[in-house]
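The authors assume throughout that readers already know how a fold can be written as C-alpha cells. For illustration, here is how one protein appears when written out as sequence plus C-alpha cells:
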Amino acid sequence: MSAFAVDPPRTNRRVAELREQAADKENISLQQRLDAIREAGRIEEDITKKEIAAAKLRLEAKQAENALGLSTKEDLEEEAQLKARLIDLETARLSKQKALTAELTTALREQAAEEKAIQAEKDAADKERQDRLDKEKADREAKEEADKKARDERILKSEIEIEQRRINAKRAAVDQAIALFGAETAAGKAALIAKQVLAAQELISE
C-alpha cells in the first residue's frame, strides 16, 4: 500500500510543496514546474481513486444491508448520503483533471514561448555573426582587389618608364649619330630615318 494512503498529512504536505514549486516562476525552471504539476496531479489522482473506491465499497455494503428489508429511515438516508458522497468525489475528480489539464496547457504554452524566444535570440546572434563574417570577407576581398589593382598599376607604370627610357636612349643615340656624321651624309640620313621610325613607334604605342 502506498505511503500516501496511510499518511494523509505527509501526502498533503508533499502536494503543497509541489504546488509551491509549480507557482515559483522566479526560481524554478519551466521544466521543473511542469514536472511538479504532473507529480502533484498524479498524487491527487491516486488519492481520489482510493477515496472513490472506499466510497463505493461503503455504498455497496449499505445497499446490500438495506436490501435485506430491515432498513430504517436512517439507513435509507445514510445510503442516499453515501451516493451523494460518491458523486461528489467523482465530480471533484473530473474538476481536478480539468484544472490539471488547464495548468499543464498554460505551462506548455509558456515553454513554447520561452523556446521560441530562445530560438529567436539564437537566430539573431547567428545572423549577426554571419553578417560580420560576410562583411569581413567582403572587406578582405575589396582590399585584395585594391592591392592587386595598385600592384598592377605600379608594374604597368614601371614597364612604361623602362620602355620610355629605352626609347629615350635610342633617340639620344640617333641624335648623336646625326650630330657626328651630319644630316646630309648617308649615315646621318639613315640615323634621321631611324629617328622618324622611333617617333612613329612612340605615337603608335600611345
Helices lie at 3-6, 8-23, 30-70, 73-181, 186-205. The two ends are 108 Å apart (CA to CA). Confidence is low (pLDDT under 50) at residues 1-6.
